[in-house]
Recover the amino acids of this structure.
């Protein structure tokens, strides 16, 4: 009663991006099969939310596989169809605990050849840290803002800078932080105009939203 | 089957404050009776969340009654046992929509003879408005911060100033603002340390928390 | 005890947009005062979520005021600093019940001089209606997708087209629709990559997110 | 203080189906006792949500036991009273992560002798995958649609095909997916008419709903 | 800036049913226009959740319009393409407060020519009332079970009878009834197997689910 | 398409109590019909949650009807089958805002001939008020405790007195009081042992729980 | 920085019961100290929710300790002050998965010398199982009803029998069962009158509520 | 792709306190690096919510590190800039299960040189335990009240004493305790005036709120 996985290869033609593989709910066997199939089509394999344990099995098979432990991502091969653009993305983060989400976004952008820079630990509890970086951040074309707890960082940046802002709530905190739900609702209710929001911890999605902008406008 | 209301007159002796009367769930008849009883004890009547319609009935009876429509509060007589202190409270608010809550806090403090000042519309979406006032705010002894939507104002102030901060979430906004719940959770999860929080729209409670501090430490 | 409203005039300088006025929680008097102040600075007045009743008072004062009843928006004067761009926005909507949200987005974009077109009633329950329009929609640079109930429209479009997609959940429906919360969560959990999401019914915010993109990339 | 389990043997007479045994909350000892009792009545034992560990203990006792690991189901013996019908059920699934739920439904249907086919990975993010299968699916009499994340698959199929549709939300996803709650609410609020919904991950229940239809109408 | 409503006329061809018009969120003007358009295609107009006030406007225009006040439905013209089947539907209800939901289901079924009967006030708090009717209910081919409060009726019937059961939670009750949410969750978690569930108060949807079964199996 | 209401007359025989009529969701016409039917069986009519407006219609028809406005209850005729017991119930309430719930319980008990007394405004914010009454309350056989806001009254009484305690959360308060949900959860999580809890505002139910005890144990 | 635990020995005098020790959140060391202290006062030690691992440590110290693994309770010594009453309690349960809760209630009652009997697996999905026992259950003085999933058992029994009913929702089930929350809300919203409810899984509390009744009325 | 952590050293200048390090979401490597950096600035390292396992690694490196296992806190070095004040803080707790939260608050206060005392196990279920300590508690200047379950302790103390009260809900309990959410909402809705509330389990934050008061008013 084996049931085959069908990969969405045509996505590349339709929207210009390949399908990423969600590693958390797949078995090692499923990951092996889908990786093999993707590679046979000369496409890059990009697996997100993959545990170290699962990653080891794939690293053992594919020489050109690379596991990014802190980002929980595994890449096999290389994405040959990069986006040609000189646009740059800044990934801004409220605290060092947001690292995994930040790195997932960074890896995704770099896989498509997009230049990006991280601005870590510029949370609003120490406003000077943010204000000291604001001139540097101003030079980037799209801003991805990751923040847990109360997520106020997105609002403050949204009031200071005119670029497209993609906010990512992070499941850091305790009690009423509710695994990122408070940061999410806070970002959606922001009094700064035009901030758009992703699902909790969805660094990959934020990168994709940035790529949609860069690809369409370059 | 009439049931009498018993007012907590001894509260003055125990904790130094009189009981405020919650006007929203009481009938006009109940408000009349309890007011009469309180006045007969030479105490001031302080009713919160009272509608214009209910207020009219009490204004018709008591010459020394005063209705504060925007604050939805009604005061009959005067509080003769004020708190003797030169401490000052700043009430800071993110937007003009927080007015009713702000005023409820102000009225309460003034009834006890405490000096207070309002700083309105200093929301974080326009950070300069806040930063321009920060030196002025620094001079106050207790800060009450009222904010709706994502409530980021409390976090930003908490990171800039050392005073006691009492945050009041306000039921302004729509959608995921959830009638103040998002501002509440945001304030409770604040990455700025030592911010204490009141129930949604509880301007009266914030003033009482400030009064507890001032009374105990003056 | 009157408290003045301070308008964020510097926002124009910082991020290039003016502050919109949230009409729902302001009194007629507050709306009058803030309008007068904004006009005195030669800026356009843009009030959202304003009732017909409140609008009448402002229409009586300002000759150049215009009320858009279905969008619940009121504009006084004209925005003289438009964005110069030939980029176009498509506003796509699942049902005719989403009209108010759709129109709020449209008005906002047009106020900044951006060309936009509405594609109404292309819900996924009748997939052919959407597929019949997909070639037309393909020509637009940014897509705003409004949908209530289960919000599946954003996912289907996200899988078919490569542009930036700004999804707006709409508070249409009953029972577990939960006033737009289900559409919101559905859009945030979308299996199509890179869809960014706004607060429920936030047509204005979606337009602002599109303007951020167009302004930064034109 | 041993407390006996009483199995609902009369269910076969009343509604034509046997009771399945919910394995998750039962101890190995309880599973052993109830299995023995059921077998002594010449009925088939069908245990759902049973771990590999618990299954091993039963496989060691009963030669004719079979454990379906991916479906987390264990069957001992054979169901001798099958439903005589040539009606067929299609089980359609949005992603390979829905596999366990899909298989639970499939096993249940096959135990009653009903012909069924799985259509896996036809999620709406790649609409062509679904549209390419729609003619094949059209030939089935009842459709079970399993989907996690935003659950849009049920709506799209409901708008394209006239058969009875039983939707099963799956607890796949993260953040606002809320362990299947978003897919559930999405399916219940579907703008496609007449879709009926089961509890999250309830593949067994979906099969039972299909069996009720087939049994009553064959 | 008028935006046309596009009706899904092809739905009849695809799935055999016409689109019902959701009256609650549409303006009188929108209802007038869509009704006119539907009638021009020789189709029946079926509007659900329409207020008495809105209905009056349509009754004034169309002679062959009929308003069912308790069901909050309005029908203009006649559905000429009925379903030819001798299958019968029983609509069972826990209390007289569920009337509107019950009637909406009944009207929908009758519009398609399906024979149906209502069994009202057979709630489980008085089990004998239900047991006294069970033989009569047994003769129907599909059972629609409407219940508010704790929704236990669906479970009890599901344990007694083998037919397809479509459960409709009703927004009757107070406190933790949560406008039907408790009945909904209760029906979804039912310990009786194979009960499928609709959105809260969705009598129309339940009828459509029944029609899908009857149409496919007759 | 009239649908008759069937009253549960046999409830008197089964459990010794008559069915109360829930007035909130019934039309005037339904109330008239069910009242007539109940009276024809020589039973007392007891309607809860009935508005003044609906009550007037019934008062106009039945001479022996009595409307208790603050309790929102209407009684027609007299309950002739009272419970013979000398047991007494104390109804204790945290604030005068809980009045309607308190009175609903009182009326229900008195209809069955049970002696009861109200202890109003003994909230825990003024502990002395409660402690001053504790000796008096000690003499009652069953305690019904009604409280809104944080519902702490039930816990304090539960720690002081040994009688059966039936706690009723009341939908008084604002913000996180959540219409009684916080009081409900607070009572259910009480650190005092053996407190049993009713639905929010369910004064009638609390009286019925007390009657079950008194009837079974007298 | 050791902090002593103070046991509430006076509870026995005030309300006649001893304090049970909540084992889940206490360390082994804390359990050891509090047990020693309680025993030194010649009282029985009754620990609930204690793991096998923690229990072992206490069994090693106290010869007269007994661990009830399925109930997760540990008793050291004997309760010498039993309640003298011939009243009997029936503990009725919907499924064998409710066993731990059922046993916790049983142990508590027996510790106070109260006669009780368990009726297991009489869930409403197989109504006959319940109806077959109803005459037996009728003979008991207080009914404790434990049920998970949709909790309908309490409603059905409440409609059939006149005794005091204490309902205990059980955290059995999956998906929308929400760890017992659905059963809880279902029991609180029951259409059967006078059912009182405990916190989820609170078998101990249910027994205490029964003991309050029996003690006060015997 | 290493990303540096930037510590907020200027916080000491702005608000007079150092930044505490949230240990739960940081890796051992991150903790090592940030500790080293902080020590190099002659500041004390204060890590909260740090596991025994992580603590061991730091204890191995720093001789002057001390791990407080029950408080889950680790301190390296000494805070040389204490607050000079003779004000005292009482930390009052409802049960011994609140220990970790209580100790986190105590450690924080002592690090700043503030005198504080713990009052443990004075829960309201045994009111006499609290009343017996009330005279002692009266002598403290600020009260921190920690309580889980229904959190009634804060309300009772708030009604008895005039000092500033900082309430900390604790995630102790089960079922509807909801990991501290019920205690939180209970404290926020308290009928005692002027109680301010912290996030669930936030002992550190409560201490910081107390320090803000003491520092500003000494």
């Amino acid at each position: 009663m084996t049931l085959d996985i069908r990969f969405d290869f045509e996505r590349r033609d339709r929207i210009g991006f390949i399908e990423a593989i969600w590693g958390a709910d797949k078995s090692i066997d499923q990951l092996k099969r889908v990786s093999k199939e993707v590679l046979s089509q000369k496409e890059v394999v990009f697996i997100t939310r993959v545990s170290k344990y699962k990653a080891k099995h794939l690293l053992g098979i594919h020489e050109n596989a690379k596991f990014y432990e802190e980002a929980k991502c595994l890449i096999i091969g290389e994405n040959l169809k990069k986006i040609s653009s000189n646009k740059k993305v800044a990934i801004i983060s409220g605290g060092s605990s947001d690292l995994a989400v930040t790195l997932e976004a960074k890896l995704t952008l770099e896989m498509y050849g997009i230049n990006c820079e991280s601005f870590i630990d510029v949370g609003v509890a120490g406003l000077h840290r943010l204000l000291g970086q604001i001139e540097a951040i101003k030079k980037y074309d799209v801003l991805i803002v990751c923040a847990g707890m109360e997520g106020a960082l997105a609002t403050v940046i949204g009031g200071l800078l005119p670029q497209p802002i993609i906010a990512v709530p992070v499941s850091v905190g305790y009690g009423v932080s509710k695994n990122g739900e408070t940061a999410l609702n806070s970002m959606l209710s922001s009094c700064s105009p035009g901030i758009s929001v992703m699902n909790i911890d969805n660094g990959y999605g934020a990168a994709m939203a940035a790529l949609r902008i860069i690809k369409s406008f370059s």
Summary: The longest strand of chain B covers residues 88-93. The longest helix of chain B spans residues 203-217.
